[in-house]
Specification:
Number of strands: 13
Shape: globular
Distance between the termini: 29 Å
Bound molecules: pyridoxal-5'-phosphate
Strand order of the largest sheet: 1-9-8-5-4-2-3
Structural class: alpha/beta
Oligomer: single chain
Number of helices: 16
Radius of gyration: 22 Å
Helix content: 40-55%
């Protein structure tokens, strides 16, 4: 039997034809396809403006820098996330302030966010783990409350204009997830998506910044500025410079270089066209199969996919096994792989990674994060996962859990 992979991309003729068309069009870097993909993303999510970049990581860092985050500042984020969320804070010279997560849904705990706010806090970065949106009403209420705005020390024009902590959502997992009936991209000041190869919607590598700033900000103006800021600070992009006689340009600041190419956007255009009515229903059906098959096992703690306010984008199926240790979890994973099924763990908590551990972050301060991590196994989800393969996945999980538990 061949190994069932964890999340291979869906590359078919439709994708190949669109990429080929982009290659043959004579325009391969940022151009008409990227601009169209940005418009399609805004139309899909229903937020004012979207800027596409070459990764979510770049998008998160660009927004921290746009807001003026620097040395001496603090940014609050969950201990339970991928390292990119914290790394970008380090790049800006600021301090990642890690807080523990919720025992039910893996997401940052708003009460712990509130307790972690100081006069240095500039940004909160909630992460929609597995695709389930965070509790944004609570997070928004915290940053807008008079007791918290009184702590905010605005530096620079943008911080003064916002007058409070910025909410920068790491939505690397949650394109298509909903909160109170609205797509992600509409709850935070700004929301950043990832189109990395393993994500729900891919452009091989890629990401997008969905702008949603309140008045008096003008999201269109921010979008135009960010186009320049993410392209060397150059006041004309390559396409504009191509226009007859339009060769002169200026550099208005030392900008970054993280634009999306039209080859990436070609993949994204096809992926987005079939996302809502094809990709998401398939991913949901896979998660529902796991739910139905595993629910009768007393050791299975099934992930929250939906409640009265939220629905996941079905990015990850985060199974937890009740009452096991980390070592037992690792043994179960080994046995699952022995049955030629790929699984994963999302995520190794930041305080367990050498770099953050060496900075002094201690996993003992994040007991829920550790508990969630130590019992977690992510099951495969991808479009072409067949019914026969799905049964192999759940059979392997059931055999492996029962074998390890009977050894205990
Ligand atoms: C994948 C991921 C990122 C980074 O996305 P890139 O597009 O690879 O930069 C950030 N945060 C989380 C939670 C992720 O899973």
């Amino acid at each position: 039997m061949s190994l069932i992979p964890f999340s291979p991309p869906r590359i078919d003729d439709e994708i190949i034809n669109e990429v080929t068309a982009a290659l043959k069009s004579g325009w391969i870097t940022t151009g008409p396809r990227t601009k169209q993909f940005e418009k399609d993303l805004s139309a899909y999510n229903g937020n004012p403006n979207t800027l596409c970049l070459n990764s979510a990581t770049a998008g998160l860092e660009i927004m921290l820098r746009w807001f003026g985050v620097k040395e001496g500042d603090e940014v609050i984020l969950p201990a339970y996330t991928y390292s990119a969320t914290a790394n970008v804070v380090m790049h800006c010279g600021a301090k990642p302030v890690l807080v523990d997560v919720d025992p039910v849904d893996f997401n940052i705990d708003p009460a712990k966010v509130k307790a972690a706010i100081t006069t240095r806090t500039k940004v909160i970065m909630p992460v929609d783990i597995a695709g389930l949106p965070c509790r944004y009403d609570e997070l928004n209420a915290i940053v807008k409350s008079p007791e918290i705005t009184a702590l905010f020390k605005a530096e620079g024009e943008r911080q003064q204009q916002l007058g409070r902590i910025m909410i920068l959502s790491d939505a690397a997992h949650s394109l298509g997830g909903t909160y109170k009936g609205k797509k992600t991209g509409n709850q935070a000041d700004v929301t950043v998506y990832s189109f990395h190869a393993v994500k729900n919607l891919t452009t091989a590598e890629g990401g997008a910044i969905a702008l949603n700033f309140p008045a008096p900000f003008n999201n269109e103006d921010i979008y135009k500025y960010l186009c320049i800021f993410t392209l060397h600070g150059q006041n004309k992009d390559a396409l504009a410079k191509m226009q007859k006689g339009n060769w002169k340009y200026d550099i208005i600041e030392a900008g970054y270089k993280c634009n999306m190419t039209d080859l990436m956007a070609a993949i994204g255009l096809v992926e987005l066209r079939r996302y809502e009515n094809d990709t998401l229903p398939r991913r949901k059906a896979i998660c529902n199969y796991y739910h139905q098959t595993l629910t009768s096992y007393p050791w299975a703690e099934l992930p929250l996919l939906k409640d009265d306010q939220r629905e996941t984008s079905y990015h990850l199926y985060q199974l937890r096994i009740k009452g096991i240790t980390e070592e037992q979890r690792d043994a179960i994973i080994q046995k699952i792989f022995d049955e030629d099924v790929s699984v994963n763990v999302h995520f190794i908590p930041l305080p367990r990674l050498s770099f953050y551990k060496n900075l002094g972050y201690d996993i003992n301060n994040y007991p829920v994060t550790y508990d969630n991590f130590s019992r977690e196994i992510s099951l495969p989800i991808f479009y072409d996962l067949s019914q026969e393969q799905l049964k192999r996945v759940t059979d392997a999980v059931i055999h492996s859990v029962e074998a390890v538990m009977s050894n205990a």
